[in-house]
Known about the structure:
The complex is a heterodimer of chains A (228) and B (267).
Chain A: H1 7-17, H2 19-46, H3 49-63, H4 67-77, H5 87-116, H6 120-128, H7 133-163, H8 175-185, H9 190-223
Chain B: H1 2-27, H2 36-43, E1 45-50, E2 53-54, E3 58-61, E4 66-68, H3 70-82, E5 85-90, H4 96-102, E6 107-113, H5 116-121, E7 123-124, E8 129-131, E9 133-138, E10 159-162, H6 166-173, E11 183-185, H7 188-197, E12 202-206, H8 207-213, E13 219-224, E14 228-234, H9 239-254, H10 257-266
Parallel strand pairs in B: 1-5, 1-6, 10-11, 10-12
Antiparallel strand pairs in B: 2-3, 3-4, 6-14, 7-14, 8-14, 9-12, 9-13
Helix pairs in contact in B: 3-9
Amino acid sequence: MSELPDLPSIFFYILVTGLPTTLILTVLALGFGFLLGMVLAIMRVYGERELAWIGSAYEKLMRGIPVLVLIFIFAYGIPEIFWYLDSLYRQVASIILALSLRSAAYQSQIFRGAILSVNPGQMLAARAIGMKQIQAFRHIVLPQAIRLAVPAWTNEYSVVIKDTSFAYSFGVIELTKAAYRVSVNFPILWAPTMLIAAILYFLVTYPVTRIFGKKQNKRLKELGIGGK
Amino acid sequence: MRKQAAIIGMILCLGGGLAIGWFIPSLFPTPTRVAVIDTIQSRGTFIVGTSADYPPFEDFYTNNDTYYGFDVDIADLIAAEMGVTVVWVDMDFDSLIGACTAGSIDMIAAAMTYNEVRAEKLAASTTYVTVAQAVIVKNSSSMAITALDNLTIAANQLIGVQAGTVMQADLEALGMVAGVNFTTYPRADALMLALDGGAIEAAYVDEPIYEAFKTTYEIKVIFSTDPEPLALWTRYSEPELLYVMNKVILEGYQDGTIQDLIITWFG
């Protein structure tokens, strides 16, 4: 076989071939999860009792199923749900669907907590000056709730980005798979290659949680939003 | 009261969800059958699943981002017959059968041995190459066996195989238990390192693996089985594709192409 590559070139190989896919999977899963999670949170806070039950049942169900099992269900169990996609993309779609459904359950908890931590007096005050409930939610509660949700939400980001590595066994060339391929070519470099993969995951996770987590907490305190 | 109602509601939702899930497949209209070979030709790509970590059958060069190996060349021959190009899907060996059944890949080319359990799920092509399994030890070892079940009396944990292979199945058929009577390794080179370092005394591997490593380590074959057939796999619902696969293999043997490939890859 050819001669051993140096560590920087392994780093850039994984960075170029693996990281974009990992980030795309993360963004899509978080995006769909955000939409569904927000709907679920609103259902649970403002919905009728029955709607709240459905939301809560969904959360409990999805929080109790491992992501890998969900991916297997969609990818191999009922692949027909993606009948409109070319067969090459069905497995990717299953992974995104599974990650979003699971993420939605956690995100709805985050948003529910955020909405509830906006003082209910504000909603009453808004109603008292003649706003409809939906207007009050849209202009008074939601802007604060979203800001309050950011620190907890970055935690969800850090979970989802690591869970995208499940795509490894489904023929998606993401960060873990790229690192695995380098290791297969050069078995003597297993440890350093996996260390590089670990560093890359850390580099895309920590700064985000740091900037949006701790700094946002500080700003929230300055703005005086939320509880004490 | 409210709590009870909530619990009942949740159980109903769960039950309802399961019921809906059960009927989801029947909600979609069964599409009129399109032979996958037509799909392959209209999109111009042939999607082949493999687990690219098994030289000399299939591997992936990270240096120039290409797949190479014996199975890769065979799949290229089949694609050339249909006038299309191969798109490789590189996944876990264990996931290949599921992916092919689900229709995510058109064919499996992953040095997969023919056996009945697999043939119940997928359609095998005709044999494109046969591979013997061998028990190998270090040159300095005095171990000698005359049949595979002699391995059962060898000391515990001193035999190694690659996980998930027919070799593991063979040992399990002899009543041996992974982790108790033998050790499994994810990859062939890890197995060879363990053998060389003395962690295991004997390794049970595909013969080409021995061929590939015999120059690196001082190892010898003490026992080899009869050659077993390897097959390419597709779904039973695609006889047209299976026909092309078989045709390419048989014609490849007729005009010597496959013999040349065997010499290239297995020496």
